[in-house]
Amino acid sequence: MTFPSAVSPRTTLFPLRRGPGDPCFQVDGDGAIWRTSLLYSGSVTARITRAAANAVECTAWGSGADEFLDALPALLGADDDPSDFTPVHPIVVDAHRRVPHLRLGRTGHVLEALIPAILEQRVQGKDAFRAWRLLVTKFGTPAPGPVPARMRVPPPGEVWRYIPSWEFHRANVDPGRARTVVGCAQRASSLQRLTSRPAEQAREALMSLPGVGIWTAAETAQRAFGDPDALSVGDYHVPKMIGWTLLGRPIDDAEMVELLEPMRPHRHRVVRLLEASGLAYEPRRGARLPLQDIRAL
């Protein structure tokens, strides 16, 4: 598959990776990206490599292979349109200059993006990644093809909705997040229809679900819809990073929203540019917060 300009599968796809032990996303010793997914036509495992500056090679296995290959251009950002993005802030201009090939991909699969975002609500990433790994490993299915060890295909909505409460507890997922996962899984079909709506409307529809707020909707829209404006308001790190990088001081959500308002409808693109360019900055201060373990409660 070729693109009209440079393409970077790693930069585009890494937001889909839920920690280093993600059973649905691994990178092998050759730098190839392995991804599993559950599509309409069935399970798929794909191996994606960069063949040239503007070309990507992909091999896929499983009953969902053809469907995955058809959707690969969108996954790698072929539909991303930054033509009206004109950065003004000098640091954002520099970030854009460093990674002009940044593309925002879209998976087109809402539940696969939504459930891990729910697991990441109000907890440290390490804890959420562990919960995702445990639940997908136990309730997912074996990945088709000659895959790296421990890879699994995420379960469908009808499996998520019937996971017992004690299994969420064992994964250190509190009852509130567990209820939200189950409630969203019960609406899997209607959630999938959101892919046909404009991204902003789809985000608003997601926020109508119990337990899904602006942060969870944004994290889902970034991945499922390739939404360039889905700003992660409520994130522990993003406002601080934006503040330190663009202003030299930490800021809160309200200040971040005001600062990035002139960059609408590309606020998420700005965040990704700063991260991908290496210009994002946030000083480390103090020890990490301890993980909350509910399993002993």
UniProtKB/TrEMBL annotation:
Which terms are listed as keywords in the entry? DNA damage, DNA repair
Biological process according to GO: base-excision repair, AP site formation; DNA alkylation repair
Please give the Gene Ontology molecular function terms for this protein.
alkylated DNA binding; DNA-3-methyladenine glycosylase activity; DNA-7-methylguanine glycosylase activity
This entry carries the following GO cellular component terms, namely: cytoplasm; protein-DNA complex
Q: Which EC number(s) does the record attach to this protein?
A: 3.2.2.21
Name the InterPro entries for this protein. Alkylbase_DNA_Glycosylase/TA, DNA_glycosylase, HhH-GPD_domain
**What PANTHER family does the record tag this protein with?**
DNA GLYCOSYLASE, DNA-3-METHYLADENINE GLYCOSYLASE
Q: What is this protein called?
A: DNA-3-methyladenine glycosylase II
Q: Which organism is it from?
A: Mycobacterium cookii
